[in-house]
Amino acid sequence: MAKAPEGYHTVRRHIRRNPGTGRKKLSGWTIAALIAAVWLWSQLIGFGEAAPATPHTPQPAVSASTGR
What we know:
By secondary structure, the protein is an alpha+beta fold.
């Protein structure tokens, strides 16, 4: 039987990769779920209360004639 290359081992005549000990990568679905959760949080709860909007009172134009 052939010897497995470095980083691999044989299991029932199949060559398998050794399990990694490093940290796992985030999948695309996990990243999409995190982005969706942040978006939903911002829609439902919000990141902070905005200051109340002050109503805009229209000012008369400077060129308006007053003596007619």
